[in-house]
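User: Hey, my collaborator sent me this sequence without any context and asked if I could get a structure. I don't really work with proteins. Can you help?
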Amino acid sequence: MRRPLTSMILRTYETDAQFHDARFTSKLNVKRSPLGGDFGRVRSSGTQNHQGWDLSAASGAPVFAITDGTIEWTHIYTGNSEGNPYGNQVCLRTNLARHATGQPLWAFYAHLLTITVCPRQAVREGDLIGFVGNSGNAEKTPSHLHFEIRSSGARHLGKGLLYRLNPGEVLGYGYLICS
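Assistant: No problem. I've predicted the 3D structure and written it out in structure-token form, which is a compact way to encode the shape of the chain:
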């Protein structure tokens, strides 16, 4: 299985400072730590959910299909971060399924700079699907890929963890480099 980025580093204050200029990191409050790029209740000292992984990467870094599949849908950002917090998005119906139930899985990619695929397009593992950006509610943050594994291909799943799995359960945790 291919990872979505060549280098997979969870987004933290340290990675923002390391990879990006001071116009972003000077606004961050390290002691409160709301950032948490991991999955689960990792935002705002464990009081808010994060539905996937935020992976630090330079703007324009290539994003890849994690496995063979079909592009379920794409969404082009309209400039309204309230109504479209994920910005430019791609949802890939993978050829993967949950072991216990056989339920299909989808890979979801968000905050993209640009998208290079179309709905119903078949893709192979490792095919380019877009480029890292900071669209949607990430416009005032350093570029990164928001990556989810979903057990539903629906466009709007809400803000909770329902229908979302920790990407590490599918990709494995060995890919991650934690700063």
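In plain terms: Residues 53-171 form a domain with the Glucose Permease (Domain IIA) fold (CATH 2.70.70.10). You can pass these tokens on to your collaborator as they are.
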